[in-house]
Amino acid sequence: MTGRQQENTAAGPVPVSPEPPLLPPTVDQDPRAASAGKGRPVLRAALRWTAAVVVFAVVGAGTAYGIAGMKRSDVPGLGTASDGRWDYPTLSRPPLPAGSPGPFADENKAQSHFADLRALVLPAPKGAVVDKALAGTDGWLATKGFLAEFSSKDDRDELAQKLTDDGLRHIAARGWTTPDGTRTRIYLLQFDTATVADDLVAKNLGGYAAPARPVVGADSYEEDADFPDAAKVTNISLLAYVEKKPYGAEQVRQAFLTAGDTVAMIVQSRKGTAKAVPFQQTVTLQGQLLG
Question: Residues 122-153: pLDDT tens digits?
Fold first, then answer.
């Protein structure tokens, strides 16, 4: 979610017995915050976008946060099993280092992510082919790999200087292609404070009706006005766009999430039409991991 984090935790798939009936969404307390007499929101109320059959088990010190879900019917446009959702694994946030607060804890004034940023990138759904080029070195992507998404050389040059000036700490990324031909790219950029991340999106990446800097394959955008409010994540700022007609051989959807000290850019493209449901699903789950 949101933020920026660093260090992959070991994860292993384990069988899961049939799910019990869904309960209403709840908010848990962090054990550390509870001892101080203060609750901290923990993401239990997430969208159940998939009938997941595996769990990402988290190993290590600190606190791991699970991501559960709401009924599909609670989310506009996601009422049936055949609506185009992808089969993502059930997700858990990576553990925080001992004594470290979450990104939106009251005591975390910079809204820093202390977990490993690489472990906060959404995993690929079942059946997808992962783009190895976005794995980078030891999970860190070089800045030029992120800049390659933008179509204009001037934009790439200006952004490169801006990221340097802003003290970019890390970029973690992941990409994949699903069997229907949809290509997904997710980039997490981490800075020292939420103020820097907010400024980057407001002045250099986002815009009211269109991104400030087009990505390759899309020149004309409009706001994704159909993105359901129920799919938005608390504490996470969202800008979502869709390429307008007439577009070329493929359509592009794009979103920026600002989560504390971390900016996420999510791009999906597909020959013909880029479908709305997997885009909304992907953006929301990534936001939940950062939140």
Answer: 999 999 999 999 999 999 999 999 999 999 99
Q: What is the pTM of this model?
A: 0.76
**Is pLDDT larger for residue 183 or for residue 225?**
183
Q: How many Å apart are CA 53 and CA 16, to the nearest integer?
A: 6
